[in-house]
Amino acid sequence: MRKLSTIGLFIDLSDLDVLLLQYIKKLDEVFQFERLTLIHFVALEEVSKEIGDMLPYLDKSLDEILEEEVLEKVVEVFGEQKSSIQVKIYSGGQLDQLVEWVDAQKFDLVLLGKKSVHGGTGVFSSKVLRLTASDTLFIPETAKARIEKIVLPLDFSDYTEGLVSLTKSLAAHTGASILPVHVLKVGRQYFPYIRKPSEFHEALHKKAISHYQKLKKKEGLPDSLEIIQGQDEPVSRSIYDYAIRKGADLIVLGNKGKTDDDTLLIGSVAERMIASDKHLPVLIVK
């Protein structure tokens, strides 16, 4: 079972930070994190000329000023400055170098906020996801700080073992129920060559059930697997709509699936699932 003891949380000194800290506080109450590192990236273009002109006359560096601002938010949410909470201000301006530092920390989980109400392009989060080797949890600003139902999409790819391990750990600590789901999806371009579509789909259905029975026996998963017949909509939409219907609080996905090219940094399902129009937390397992 996977442990969750060291966590990295990206913040941007916006209103979203308090919401993220409230979410992570709830998780901390459950997991008792050994180390929580709050990470703030300062792009070079963010340092205005006005601030740059003022810096020589201040008795503190920009990093120290920003760190104090971060710690004020920590006290606001946690009620105290916990010794397990650290702050990393990176003002080098190179995101890839910061992500290299993040990966070197071997965090059990990295968290990123996702704006919808307060605006935001999502470009920064997408870049981090592409660059990092860490498991990454995306938290929309509308998310509630709870984990009671976890949707576990399965395509029985190489990512399955990691998905199941992390999902079981989350469920064991939070008491959440696990909702396994598999989407049957066949490209429309193949249909003209399928002589008996109904028999073909039945064979795929049986194959998925067979895969799941073996996985269930090995990992102790729930008895039933929800199988969704994918239509014209993307697999990500089928999974997301299922999660909404079930009132889920979290979706756990592999970084890439069976149908994704090995050269891709991130799979198509994961890419769509973290889009701004999705409002459920999504954990991408690398």
From the structure above, extract its key features:
286 residues; alpha/beta; Rossmann fold; 40% helix; 20% strand; Nucleotide-binding universal stress protein, UspA family; UspA
Describe the structure.
The model is unreliable at about 260-265 (pLDDT under 50). Helix 1 links the parallel strand 1 (about 5-10) and strand 2 (about 35-40). This protein is of the alpha/beta class and about 290 residues long. The longest helix is centred in the C-terminal third of the chain and has 23 residues, at about 195-220. Strands 3-2-1-4-5-10-9-6-7-8 form a 10-stranded mixed beta sheet, with helices on both faces. It has 2 domains: about 5-140, Rossmann fold (3-Layer(aba) Sandwich); about 150-285, Rossmann fold, CATH 3.40.50.620. The protein is elongated and about 75 Å long. The chain is built from 9 helices and 10 strands. Helices cover about 40% and strands about 20% of the residues. This is Nucleotide-binding universal stress protein, UspA family. It comes from Cyclobacterium xiamenense. Belongs to the universal stress protein A family.
